[in-house]
Design brief:
It is built from 11 helices and 9 strands. By secondary structure, the protein is of the alpha/beta class. An 8-stranded parallel barrel has the order 1-2-3-4-5-6-8-9, surrounded by 6 helices. Helix 6 runs parallel beside helix 7 and helix 10 runs parallel beside helix 11. The protein binds (3S,4R)-3-hydroxy-2-oxopiperidin-4-yl beta-D-xylopyranoside (XIL). Keywords: Carbohydrate metabolism, Glycosidase, Hydrolase, Polysaccharide degradation, Signal, Xylan degradation.
């Protein structure tokens, strides 16, 4: 097929992008979005600070713009993210202990319930592991509410939206390393104890290269009985096109790698300012990286 989404669909996968609600009036942007992609992730609009700016007052206007656009155009929606140590509203940042735990679980329940039936996969918890070389949990106010906060969030999300696939999502987990192994061990434990988890997201914010054991790492998670998804792909630096190709091929080689999401459309849309890590240039033209990704599909 001649587009990323249609080519991925021929392999039973989706090809998605992060979207900003404030760009849905940009004709070039929307033209590429609707032509190339069949899945979207809200780049910021479903985060805690956006959806619950004051405690118990939920605002979905911007997230709904993205969800409605996706549904009107036959695209999946990845929900991102219910709980994360970053981009929390100020009121939550000043909470701790049992008050924070119950506010967090209420947040999960409310947001997942509001979108029940409309989300393909939820990043229930984002970036909860540390980069300490030991595979430990990241120290955060949520972690200090008790090590069971992650499983409590997954159980609350399942109860609120039984049809959504529930994912754990993180970065620097692309190869087999201490951090990815810490997450792997959590999935083993969750599966053994019946904690509901359906997928693991690999953000894959890459520079210059991808670890040689990328595919093997995806496969070891898939072999536990969860789907794997590449959730925030962007690739800076030399060899960009070749690395895109390698990542796409790795996903296709893993039966349970169900989709790939790039973290923006044009280089000028990227959060990695000046690094030009995406598939389209600032004018919306296809880059060599686009051609490499399409040819790998
Ligand atoms: C980024 C957005 O792209 C930026 O617009 C925002 O200022 C900060 O967050 N990991 C994640 C994403 O899970 O939510 C982050 O998105 C990028 C890193």
């Amino acid at each position: 097929a001649s587009t990323l989404g249609a080519s991925a669909a021929e392999h039973g996968r989706y090809f998605g992008t992060a979207v900003g609600a404030n760009k849905l009036g940009d004709g070039t942007y929307v033209g590429i979005l609707n032509r190339e992609f069949n899945s979207v992730t809200a780049e910021n609009e479903m985060k805690w600070d956006a959806t619950e700016p004051s405690q118990g007052r939920f605002t979905y206007t911007n997230a709904d713009r993205i969800v409605n656009h996706a549904r009107a155009n036959g695209m999946n929606v990845r929900g991102h993210t219910l709980l994360w140590h970053s981009q929390q509203p100020g009121w939550a940042q000043s909470m701790s202990g049992s008050a924070l735990r119950s506010a967090a679980m209420n947040h999960v329940t409310q947001v997942a319930s509001y979108y029940r039936g409309r989300i393909h996969s939820w990043d229930v918890v984002n970036e909860a592991f540390a980069d300490d070389g030991r595979g430990s949990r990241r120290d955060s106010s949520l972690q200090r509410t008790g090590n069971d906060w992650i499983e409590a969030a997954f159980r609350a999300a399942r109860a609120a939206d039984p049809g959504a696939r529930l994912c754990y999502n993180d970065y620097n987990t692309d190869g087999i390393n201490a951090k990815s192994t810490g997450i792997y061990n959590m999935v083993v434990d969750f599966k053994a104890r019946g904690v509901p988890i359906d997928c693991v997201g690999f953000q894959s914010h890459l520079t210059n290269s991808v670890p040689g054991d990328y595919q093997a790492n995806l496969q070891r998670f898939a072999s536990l009985g969860v789907d794997v998804q590449i959730t925030e792909l962007d690739i800076a630096g030399a060899n960009q096109a070749a690395v895109y190709s390698t990542v796409v091929r790795a996903c296709l080689a893993v039966a349970r790698c169900t989709g790939i999401t790039v973290w923006g459309i044009r280089d000028t849309d990227s959060w990695r300012t000046g690094q030009n890590p995406l598939l389209f240039d600032g004018n919306g033209n296809k880059k060599p990286a686009y051609t490499a990704a399409l040819e790998a599909l």
